Amino acid sequence: MEVEPRSRSKPASAQRESGPSWHDLRGWVAQIEQHGELARIAAEVDPHEELGAVTLLASRQDKSPALMFESLRGDATGSRILINMLGASRERYALAVGLDPSATTSEMIQATRSILNEPVPPVMVAKDQAPVNEVVLTGKDIDLTRFPVPTFWPGDGGPFIGTGDITFTASPDTGRINVGCYRQMLQGPNRIGLYCSPGKHGLLDREAWWARGKPCEVVAAYGIDPVLFMLAAQSFAAEESELDVAGGIMGRPVELTKAECVSLPIPANAEFVIEGVLRQGDVMPEGPLGEFTGYYGRERSPQPVMEVLAVHHRKSPIFTHALMARYPSCEIGAYYAIMRSARILDDLERIGVPGVVGAYSHPAAASGWGMVVVSMQQKYAGHAAQVLALTAQCPAAAYYTKWIIVVDEDVDPTDFNDVMWALSTRCHPSEDIDILRNTWSTGLDPSRFPAELRPYGSKVLINACKPHQHLKDFPQSTLLRKSVHDRVRERWAELGLAEPAPKMTVFHPEKP
Ligand SMILES: Cc1cc2nc3c(=O)[nH]c(=O)nc-3n(C[C@H](O)[C@H](O)[C@H](O)COP(=O)(O)O)c2cc1C
Ligand SMILES: [Mn+2]
Hints:
The protein has 14 helices and 25 strands. By secondary structure, it is α+β, with helices and mostly antiparallel strands. Strands 6, 7, 8, 9, 10, 11, 12, 15 and 18 form a nine-stranded antiparallel beta sheet that branches. It has a five-stranded mixed beta sheet with strand order 20-21-22-24-23, sandwiched between helices. The chain binds flavin mononucleotide and manganese (II) ion (MN). Residues 163, 178, 180-183, 195-197, 200-202, 232-235, 322, 324, 331-332 line the site of flavin mononucleotide (FMN).
């Protein structure tokens, strides 16, 4: 068997000279429209369940376009809703971060590793230079019920103004601004529920302010560009600001401006921003919401409420939303799998384990949370078991992931057909499966009873590599000889077959 070498650094086809070409959400919308990746819906749609239904049905394929709802029942504000902004589309992910949309998934993962590791801190711009200040409302002028706010699923606990959102909080100790994406249920004209699960940085910041006897200031934006949205929903170290990572991806600093009522800055180019405070003890019943697992998550429970002190928005604002549903109808279908895989590879490299070639968090497995496949070149006895165990517990992969699979380097971890082949021909279940118990998980995992036990997960480690002790006598897989493969590709047009000619990367030895 001969495997064409795969580079561990960024491959040429996914390299980029600069950041993405768009500047704000409107620039992004124009760009995806140019690429035929946007559908505008002019007919009136009801934000109550109908918008969710249209979105679900229109996003049943990974190539489904982003949807711009331009007329929403009951709306007198001229607002619009953009949803499936990234969805399951690898092409839109690539356009968002400035990569070549025709690159393979593996190439995008490798390129993502470099663009996530070039932090650029944000800058402040003058208030009158900030498009988000086209309209500024404070005090009694604030009435969020005037805007279209969707209820996605029949069992949702209420309308959610924040799904495709970002939320700023600051650490009272260091001033670090955290950017998180947390669901936000509309509770009244100037009241918004904020649900943060245990361990999330928004929750840690809030608790730290309250421990000092002070309210926690919050800034949330509901119409936001795809890069800030993606980074808000990725976990970074508690002291790392997602704003710096976003600047690195954009190839220029994120622009912020001063707020009216709180000391936090606000994103200058957002479509719709609120300033608010969370006061200890101010709670209201919140949830549930149809979640990324494909189930309703987090039963109705008392959760903190933001009192909204100021609203900033562009005229005819575009609200960004994220449908949480089973793949491929999920806002985090493509990008999440790619970014999580990139960060798993970073972790494994940092640990220093040799031989790792690729990784993929399959999006159909609960939006990339459920399964990780790592490909590797086995170099010594026990190597595959080592990669399995390290992957299972590395920071980027430890949360939730139930299925950790290692495959040899001739198997493409991003290709489900390849992975199924390895599982079915190289794995011997009685020898090759181990289970970890009481691992890091979430209350959103529906599979465990009683519900209080859900945060205690378990993981299966599956060795789908050829057995190391039998590498030499393992049966040969059926492969083409490279010379014949190349000749046939050259003759493709002559053979009258549809272009482009498929390409293999693993070959039979040229001279047996
Ligand atoms: C659409 C969407 C909704 C989310 N809702 C919540 C939520 O309500 N609560 C929560 O704790 N995390 C939620 N998450 C996950 C967080 O965004 C993610 O864990 C992120 O890392 C949080 O930022 P942090 O690490 O700075 O706390 C959501 C993610 C997405 C994409
Ligand atoms: Mn964070």
